[in-house]
Specification:
Layout (H helix, E strand, L loop, with lengths): L2 H19 L2 H19 L1 H14 L4 E3 L3 E3 H18 L13 H12 L1 H10 L6 H12 L1 H8 L3 H29 L6 H6 L5 H10 L11 H21 L2 H21 L2 H16 L5 H18 L1 H9 L6 H19 L23 H28 L13 H16 L5 H4 L3 H19 L7 E3 L5 E3 L2 E2 L1
Antiparallel strand pairs: 1-2, 3-4, 4-5
Protein name: O-antigen ligase domain-containing protein
Subcellular location: Membrane
Membrane topology: Multi-pass membrane protein
């Protein structure tokens, strides 16, 4: 009996046992799940594509397999397992040396450094959550850059991943907008999130009801969907403008629906960041961006006139008397006390603020890094972004949007927009799944930049006896 027959018999027995022990619905889901696991183990790229679709559609849907985890992170971990297995069998293409990937290299230093604040937090912070699990989840979410380097070497694979991201985003937008239009309440989506097994549902429902005038979504918080739109809308626009047929409709459809969702969610940080990045693109003479700004302004006026609650929201959105604005002022006022109380960071046992303390959190990407992993950790994150910019920055002069550079320009603008939104919110620092999508976008971007700007790629020098040198230093 060969191995294939033995595996088929074992799976047949397993499926039969599931059918006997579980209800028909649970048995069906278990069979689908096992089939998905086997498929990902055979084809790791499919795992990354499935992650992209699931993470943008239902990012915080959970599964309990002894340890409760989001489905998105479970798929990501399984994809890494498939990569390890295929590497053992030598089935994956060779990956360029880490020495020729400066962004990846600096990100690895950040991950290694996080061991120190992790240990500090385990000792100094008292909380019920597991610091080990939170730390490992954060490392897993950062690993998107390395996944891209292993699985997205070919451009057609990067295009397939972008399509998966946009399809998941389109499904999420259609669901969120349809539910909000029908129920006229941000809490209207709560029942659907319950079906997808969202964690802490009572607290989640309470939060959605408290912000019922703003559109609810699978991202649970209106500012979170704003952050994701800031990250993905430039990519959707650039992709749609340079494609034809259904791909063009997909890209432009996500861009239009995303702009509407941004207004309905009323995320100030995302609005400002996208507007600033579009202005930068217009200054760099990227085609259609100036026209897009005018069309967006016209659509904004039309939507505001057609939806009175949005008028009330926008009337106070940038006011200093706005409740969320006042909270942010309090956060900045108390932030020095937080740094003084935890100079080396609070680690990964809890998110700011520390339970039982009189402190507040902080709605800022870089200051949140200081809060969690200390000043040195924040400086390492800055070093990663500097390395990324050196690799991905556009050349001087006008930028021409073409099919060849659409993925590079769209991801560059999206990452810039996400970083600008970090001045107002902290989601792209330690928020699971959102962080994974951010670093996956960075991974796509640096691969495209290395293809378009090969002169920027560091060269590994070699000397006699085959000993490699990098910039004159032994490696």
């Amino acid at each position: 009996m060969n191995l294939a027959s033995l595996v088929a018999i074992l799976f047949g027995l397993l499926f039969g046992a599931l059918a006997l022990l579980l209800s028909p619905a649970k048995a069906f889901l278990a069979v689908i799940g096992l089939a998905g696991v086997v498929t990902i183990l055979r084809f790791p790229l499919w795992g990354l594509l499935l992650f992209a679709g699931m993470a943008t559609f239902m990012p915080y849907s959970t599964v309990n397999l002894g340890i409760r985890s989001t489905v998105s992170e479970a798929i990501l971990a399984l994809t890494w397992g498939a990569i390890v297995w295929h590497s053992f069998l030598s089935r994956l293409p060779a990956t360029p040396s880490l020495a020729t990937r400066p962004t990846d290299q600096m990100l690895l230093w950040l991950m290694l450094f996080s061991v120190f604040p992790f240990i500090v937090g385990q000792v100094t912070v008292q909380a019920d959550t597991s610091g080990v699990a939170n730390w490992l989840r954060w490392l897993l979410n950062l690993s998107g850059v390395f996944l891209a380097a292993r699985l997205l070497v070919e451009r057609k694979h990067r295009e397939a991943l972008v399509i998966a991201l946009l399809l998941g985003t389109l499904a999420m937008l259609l669901l969120s907008i349809a539910v909000f239009v029908r129920t006229r309440s941000g809490a209207g989506i709560a029942s659907i999130l319950a079906m997808f097994n969202y964690a802490n549902f009572d607290m989640l429902k309470f939060g959605l009801e408290a912000m019922s005038s703003r559109m609810g979504s699978p991202w649970t918080h209106p500012n979170a969907i704003g952050g994701i739109m800031a990250l993905l809308l430039p990519l959707a626009f650039c992709f749609g403008m340079t494609e034809q047929g259904w791909r063009r409709a997909l890209g432009l459809g996500v861009a239009c629906l995303g702009a509407a969702a941004l207004l309905l969610a009323s995320s100030r940080g995302a609005m400002v960041s996208l507007a600033l990045v579009l202005m930068w693109m217009a200054i760099r003479r990227v085609p259609y961006t100036g026209r897009l700004l005018m069309i967006g302004a016209a659509l904004t006026v039309a939507l505001v006139l057609a939806y009175p609650p949005l008028q009330d929201r926008l009337a106070t959105i940038f006011s200093s008397s706005n409740a969320s604005t006042e909270v942010r002022f309090d956060e900045y006022r108390m932030f020095p006390q937080a740094v003084a109380s935890y100079p080396l960071g609070i680690g990964f046992k809890a998110d700011p603020p520390v339970p039982g303390s009189h402190l507040l959190g902080i709605s800022n990407l870089w200051l949140n890094y200081i809060y969690k992993v200390g000043l040195a950790g924040m400086l390492l994150f800055v070093a990663v972004t500097v390395r990324w910019w050196r690799e991905a920055r556009p050349d001087k002069g006008p930028i021409r949007l073409t099919k060849d550079n659409a993925l590079w320009l769209g991801t560059t603008a999206g990452i810039l927009s996400a970083l600008v939104s970090g001045l107002f919110d902290h989601y792209f620092s330690f928020a699971v799944v959102m962080v994974a999508l951010f670093w996956l976008m960075v991974g796509i971007n640096v691969l495209e930049a290395r293809r378009l700007f090969p002169a920027r790629v560091p060269q590994v020098k070699r000397v006699a006896h085959g000993k490699p040198l990098i910039d004159g230093a032994p490696f």
